[in-house]
Amino acid sequence: MKFPNGPQTPAVSQMLRWIANPMSFMEACAKTYGEIFTLRLDKNLPPMVVVSNPQAQQQILTTDTKELEAPGDVNQLFEPLLGKHSVITISGAEHQRQRQLLMPPFHGERMRNYSQVITDVTKQVISQYQIGKPFNIRSATQAITLRVIMQAVFGLYEGPRAEKLQNFLSELLEKASSRLNVALLYFPALQRDFGPINFWGKQMRLQQEADELIYEEIRERREQPDSSRTDILSLLMAARDEAGQPMTDEELRDELMTLLVAGHETTATALAWALYWIHKIPSVRQKLLQELDSLGDNPDPSTVFKLPYLNAVCSETLRIYPVAILTFPRVVRTSISLGGYELEPGTVLLGSIYLTHQREDIYPEPKQFKPERFLERQFSAYEFLPFGGGVRRCIGLAFAQLEMKLALAQILSSKALELVNKGEVRPKRRGLVTGLDRPIEMVVTSQRHMKSPILQTTTV
Ligand code: HEM
Fold it and tell me: Alpha-carbon torsion 429, 435, 438, 439, what sign?
């Protein structure tokens, strides 16, 4: 079989570039080889075909599952943290079953509960920052998204166990985001526990401690069921599959960890980028404030959610530097034709969200932050795909968008902020997603005296 062209350098050097800076590596490959190319990261793994053409994205995300699958075993990089039963690491009918059990808490009526949580938590976090004292914006957005997801998953959750779990999760994810950890994930032979001084061993122990707290919580809920609770854990414990079976404790643990990890790390980065762009480009901030100020007192969350310019700013934030630069891998099961190549069973396909979002033909001047492009035209689901698509499309898509919009509205309405250093910030690998290449500091310059912008809760 002839694979699309790609770098001919040894696998180990491709892997090192991939770990160090996947964005610039993919951009360099696209420049040389075009919109479909092959990477060889490991001599023991099949080559990976990367695509950025929207038609090809559509083909790999929507093709009949007999030809193309999105199996969980190719996501084994996530297994050490999320477990074997996570929706991300399982496949086929099991994946479908688990998705069906997980989806209801992220739909319609349920979203109403989260609006209030997001607004309250954002208020609490942002009120700590005082005029004139610089603070790290990613720490602030991470504090918001971690508390929000903890409350969404566990309900009103206070006390020593909640605090401990929150601290473990922060530490765990901070460690997981290092390049060393990513290298250990890509080179599993190095994943050994050499005792307490060892990086991987420490990571595993932190995880065991977090797991124990989660299992304690599940046990307690089973012993004292409370049917009035509407948090995600309660909904998952009450959920039954088509055969009438509930989720096991291990499944619950893995799904909770998946939601806690996927649900806060990604949105924290997206919010940090949004605040950076809004304050980097004065005209963007001005237009956004105009839109928010025009709402009057106490608009409901659904009005905020539908604001056109706020929506454009959030979309452009997720376009220019998508937090997830790739869709999960898809694997060819029966030969297919893609981008002029005949690809045989076993070929691994990756949709490069980053490269599609950087295409000059779809997004003129792609390196410029221009929310207006989302007001001027509509992009198809395969031109703009920050949340992927098809059978593995992000479960938290609506939740993440709601959180970005309500948190931004709350922050901008209550504080005037400035960037301490207006220099450029670029994307950088952060664990298995992207982050910022340097800390962004901001400072509160004055209070803004809009009345509490979001008080009521209605369905979004
Ligand atoms: C800005 C925030 C977020 C971004 C950019 C994002 C992006 C993505 C992407 C690209 C995928 C893979 C889709 C594919 O391969 O087709 C994904 C999957 C997933 N996301 Fe998100 N996500 C975000 C927030 C969230 C939140 C808030 C949650 C949950 C509370 C969440 C839970 C998940 C889960 C469980 C999956 C796996 C779905 C499956 O394998 O079936 N994500 N996300």
Answer: negative
Give the Å distance between the CA of 249 and the centre of ligand 1: 23
What percentage of the chain exceeds 90 in pLDDT? Answer: 58
Ligand 1 atom nearest 264 alpha carbon: 27
For the chain, how many structural domains are there in total? 1
Q: What is the domain range of residue 338?
A: 11-447
pLDDT in tens, 155-168: 866 788 888 888 88
To test the pocket of ligand 1, the residue of 79, 114, 251, 387 to mutate (highest count of ligand atoms within 8 Å of its CB) is: 387
User: Is 35 inside any structural domain?
Assistant: yes
Better pLDDT: 369 or 110: 369
- 132: CATH: 1.10.630.10
Best-predicted range by mean pLDDT (216-220, 360-364, 419-423): 360-364
Residue 459 lies in a domain: no
- The pLDDT, as a whole number, for residue 457 is 46
Mean pLDDT across the stretch 369-379? 97
DSSP per-residue codes, 247-305 = PPHHHHHHHHHHHHHHHHHHHHHHHHHHHHHHHHSHHHHHHHHHHHHTT-SS--HHHHH
CA of 340 to the centre of ligand 1 (A): 30
Structure tokens at 331: 């694997």
Q: Is residue 3 part of a domain?
A: no
Our answer on whether the CB atom of 394 is closer than 6 Å to any ligand 1 atom is yes
Residue 5 lies in a domain: no
What single-letter DSSP state applies at residue 333? S
